[in-house]
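mind reviewing this stuff:

——
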Amino acid sequence: MNCGSWHHHSDATPPLKIKNMKAKLEFDLDDVDDRMAHLRCVKSTDMAIVLWEMTMNTRKRVTSGYDEKDDFYRGVDAVFDKFRELMEESNINPEELIR
């Protein structure tokens, strides 16, 4: 395989130089499914911000003032644990999406 002046050898790793990577998404906004896909892309930052807020701050605010042994606290904790589990199963990490 020839990649410019670099030739692949099993014991060598090629230097990767990727510049100016771009992606262009196109949607047919007359198509119902494409319109929904477009809205998902347009709203993705808002969703990431909400996920960040929920995972980083909301649990703390909701349980503030409750003892860890309190039933309410444990119930809220169980809900947020499940929420984190679902995000992990889908490989969603808000820390990767928000700086």
